[in-house]
Amino acid sequence: MPGITALHRHTHGHPEVIIGVVDGPPDLSHPCLAGAQVEAREPWWLPSIAADDQAREHGTWTASVLAGRPGSVLPGLAPGCRLIMLNHPAGEEHVPDPHSAARAIEELVQAGASIIQYTLAHHTASHDADPMLKRAVAAAIEAGVLVTAPAGNDYGKHSIAVANLPGVLAVGAHRADGAMFFFSNHGPAYAGHGLVALGEAVYGATPGDGGIKAQKGTCVSVALVTGAAALLVSLQRHLGRPADPLAVRDALLAAARPCTTEQAHGKPERCLNGIIDLPAATRHLFGDAPPPQAAPTSATAALPTSIIATSSGLVSQSGPAHLPVSSRRDVRITTVAERPHLAPAAGEGTPRKEDHGEGAHGEGTYGEGAAGQGPQMPAFLAGDLAGRWSLHARLQDRFPQFSVVATSADGQVIARGHGVPFALALPGRGRLPDGGWDDILTWAFADTQTGTPPDTLGLLAITVQPTHRGTGLPARVLAALKDAARTAGLTHVVAPVRPTRKHHEPHTPMADYATRTRPEDGLPADPWLRTHVRAGGTIIGLAPASMTVAGSLTQWREWTGLPFDADGPVIVPGALVPVQASLTHQHAVYVEPNIWVHHPLGRPS
Fold first, then answer.
1. Which uninterrupted H or E stretch holds 249?
2. CA angle 506, 509, 510 (to 5 degrees)
3. How far apart are alpha carbons 169 and 197 in whole angstroms?
C-alpha cells in the first residue's frame, strides 16, 4: 500500500489511539505479538464458549497485521496504537447474534476506541440490519468513532451488515495486480461509503505454532484499511490536532482512485468509491506540504517501515523510492548478460559476504559508510562454508542476468552488484530464513538443480571502488539489481544486510541495533541500512544466523593474528558479534546476524 512508508516516518501509531476489533481471540503467545499492545477481551455478557480453530486463526491473523511488534517476522501496521480484540462467537456452529454484536460495539465505544473494525458478517437479502445493531453503529458514529467492516465475499448477491449501514467504511478486495476479485461485494447498499484495497495472499500470524499463513478476502483488505486509518488518526494526535476519525474516513473516501475498466471487469460499481490512495488521503487531511516530523515515541523510534508478507514472498508497504543521484554522469550500468566480457574473473565466483552493502560491504572497505574509514574486510569471512561451496560451484556464473556491473567513461569497472534467484513460496519455506545469506545461496542452487521457477531475488553483494564513494553509486547499483529482478518477472527483492557500523558494538544485540533511528528524520542510524530504506526498502526482521564461520584455533589465529588462548567469547576486529572459542575442542565458531530488508518492485527506476 503506497504511502505507508511515508506515514511510518512520522508515526507507527499513537498510544492514545485505540483500535477495537470484533473478531476471534488472538494467540498472544505468537512471537510477533509478544509484548505487543494487544488486550484480548471476552464477551462477559455471553456464556463461555470455546472459540473454534477458524476464529482463533482469524483473530490471530488480524492482530498481527495491526499490532505485530517491530523487528519481528510480522511487524504490524500500527504497533504504537493500543489494540483491543473483543472475541465474539461466530462460525459454522455459532451464527453471530446481532443483539450481542451490538453490545460488542457498545463495549468498544465505552473502552475509548477511535476505530472499530467489525469483522463479522450478518448476511441479509434486504440490504438492512437488525434495529439494535443499527442503533449501536449509529451511536458509535455519533460519538466520532470510525467503524470499518468488510464488504463481504458474496459476489454482490447480498449485502452484509454492518458494512451496508450508512457512515460505515465498507471495504472490498482487489487482487495483487489491481483487478477486482469477483467475490468482493458491491451494490447500492455500499454506494458512497466504500472503497477497495489489497485482499490477496497477505501473510499473518497463525495460532499455536508461531507460524504464518496467507489469507485472502475482504477481511484481509479491511485490516489494511483499518491500520492505515489508525496511522492517520495517530498523525493527527502527534501534530497536536484533535483526533478526528470521521475526517479520516471522509479523506479516504474522497481520495479513492477510480478503477480502470479492466480492473473493474467492465462494472465500475465493483470498485465501490475506488481504490484506496493513502498519499492522496494524507494530502487531503494535512495539505500538500509534508507534515512536520512528529516527536519520536517508543513506536516511531522502533523501525522505519512496516511490511506485510504474501504467498509469493513479501509485498512491502513502501512508498516511492527516493534514490540518491550519482554525480558521475559518465557511469554506465548494465548486467553481465548484456556485457559478458565484464564477468568476474575466474576464481572470483560468488562474492563473499563482506562485499554486501555500503561502507562495510559497498565501498570496498570495512569502515564508516561513505567515509570508508577502517581496516579492509576481515579475512575470517572467507571461511564461510556456503560461500566457499558456491565459489567452487561458480554459482554466480549461472545468473549473469542478476550480476550488475558499472563502468566509468574509460571502461574501467567501478562497481558490481550480485544476486541469486530462488523460490520463496515453496512448502517448507514461505518465510525468509534465519540462515540469511547462507540459506538463500543454498536455496538458489537447489532450485537450479530441480528446475524450480524463482519468485524472489536475494542480494548477495554490492561493491564500489573507493574512488566513487559518496556519489550515490551503491543506490544506483541497487536500483539496477531491482530492475533486473523486475525484467525477469520476479516478485520481490530481499537482502540480508550486514550493517556498516555494527562491528564497533559486538556486544549490542542486533535487534537493538536495527531499531536505531536518527532523530532528525526517523531514518535508520546505520548508513547502509539508511541507503536501503531511502531506496524504498523496508526492514522486516532479523537473520540471526545469516553466516557461520567455523574453524580450528590455528585457522582463527592465522585469520586474525589473535592468540585465541582462552575459552569463551573473543572480540575480533570486523566481527559483528563475539567469536566463541573452545580450547578443549580446539575450534572457534562465529555466527553472524544480519538484518532482512525487503524491496518492493514497482515501475522500473
1. helix 245-255
2. 90
3. 12
The SS3 call for residue 19 is strand
Please check whether residue 8 is in contact with residue 304, taking contact to mean a CB–CB distance below 8 angstroms.
yes
162 cis-preceded (ω within 30 degrees of 0)? yes
User: Cell triple for residue 287?
Assistant: 495539505
Give the pLDDT of residue 103. Answer: 92
Residue 151's alpha-carbon distances to 158, 174, 187, 559, in angstroms, are 10, 12, 10, 62
Q: Do the Cβ atoms of 131 and 92 come closer than 8 Å? A: no
Q: 249-253, 320-324, 432-436, 512-516: which range is least confident on average?
A: 320-324
The CB-based long-range contact list for 360-363 (8 Å cut-off, 24+ gap) reads 360/498, 360/499, 360/500, 360/501, 360/502, 360/503, 360/528, 361/461, 361/462, 361/463, 361/498, 361/500, 361/528, 362/462, 362/463, 362/464, 362/474, 362/528, 362/531, 363/464, 363/466, 363/469, 363/474
Residues 6+ apart with CB under 8 A from 192: 253, 273
Within 10 Å of residue 346's Cβ, how many Cβ atoms? Answer: 8
| Grid cell for residue 483 | 530492475
Tally the C-alpha atoms within 13 A of residue 230's C-alpha that lie toward its C-beta: 32
Residue 31 three-state SS: helix
Pairing assessment for the beta strands 18-23 and 115-118 based on DSSP bridges? parallel
20 by DSSP, 3-state: which? strand
Can you read off the three cell numbers belonging to residue 357? 552493502
Residues 192, 169: Cα–Cα separation, whole Å: 9
Q: What are phi and psi of 269, to 5 degrees?
A: -65, -15
Please answer whether residues 547 and 581 qualify as being in contact, where contact means their C-beta atoms are separated by less than 8 angstroms: no
Extract the C-alpha cell encoding 23.
473478531
Beta carbons of 605 and 536 less than 8 angstroms apart: no
Report how far residue 514's alpha carbon sits from residue 500's, in angstroms, rounded to the nearest whole number. 11
Q: Measured between alpha carbons, how far is 31 from 72 in angstroms, rounded to an integer?
A: 7
Pairing of strands 146-150, 169-174: parallel
Grid coordinates representing 63 are 492482530
Burial of 135 (0-12, 13-18, 19+ CB in 10 A): middle
Report pLDDT digits (tens) over 20-40: 999 999 999 999 998 899 999
Write out pLDDT tens, residues 579-588.
999 999 999 9
Calculate what percentage of the chain has a pLDDT beyond 70. Answer: 84
Report yes or no: 22 and 118 within 8 Å, Cβ to Cβ. yes
Nearest C-alpha neighbor of 171 from the set 236, 113, 218, 235: 218
- Rounded CA gap, 359 and 528, in Å? 7
Q: Which residue has the cell 467492465?
A: 266
Place of cell 522486516: 540
Q: Which of 546, 544, 510, 529 is nearest to 598 (CA)?
A: 529
With beta carbons less than 8 A apart as the criterion, state whether 49 and 83 touch.
no
pTM assigned to the model? 0.53
CA–CA distance, 381 with 549 (Å, rounded to integer): 7
Contact present, 272 and 197 (Cβ < 8 Å) = no
**From CA 320, how far away is CA 3, in angstroms rounded?**
8
Tell me which residue has cell 473502552.
111
Short-list 306, 310, 312, CA closest to 203: 310
